[in-house]
Design a protein that fits this description.
Strands 1-2-3 form a 3-stranded mixed sheet, sandwiched between helices. A hairpin with a 5-residue loop joins strand 1 and strand 2. With 105 residues, it is an alpha+beta fold. Helix 1 (3-25) crosses helix 3. It is built from 4 helices and 3 strands; from the N terminus they run H-E-E-H-H-E-H.
């Protein structure tokens, strides 16, 4: 594994852990309770991060809208917690793969 892909994987994991903690500990929106960050996909230049999540109540456009509206808050929290040259722009997207697994029950 080359150094760039290792850095990308490490940064994605740091973002996932930091956002999970931020949602639990710092987000003041009660509707965020029950959100699980399932993955982070980074662009090749590490400037954009797609945050995959699930919500225990199922897919919700309201939650998606609220998460994307609060992405500036989440990005500023990331800036305080992780060390990287650039804090990526965030985009929250419902994790379709896990969503279909829960719907099949």
């Amino acid at each position: 594994m080359n150094q760039k892909s290792f850095k990308k994987l490490r940064l994605a994991e740091e973002i996932k852990e930091s956002l999970s903690k931020t949602i639990i500990e710092e987000a003041n929106d009660e509707s965020f309770i029950g959100i699980t960050i399932t993955g982070v996909k980074l662009s090749s230049d590490l400037r954009k991060a797609i945050i995959l999540y699930t919500y225990f109540k199922g897919k919700s456009e309201t939650i998606n809208h609220k998460l994307n509206k609060a992405k500036g808050f989440f990005r500023s929290c990331l800036a305080k917690k992780i060390r990287t040259k650039y804090i990526p722009e965030l985009e929250f997207i419902w994790d379709e793969y896990l969503g279909t697994m829960f719907d099949e029950r």
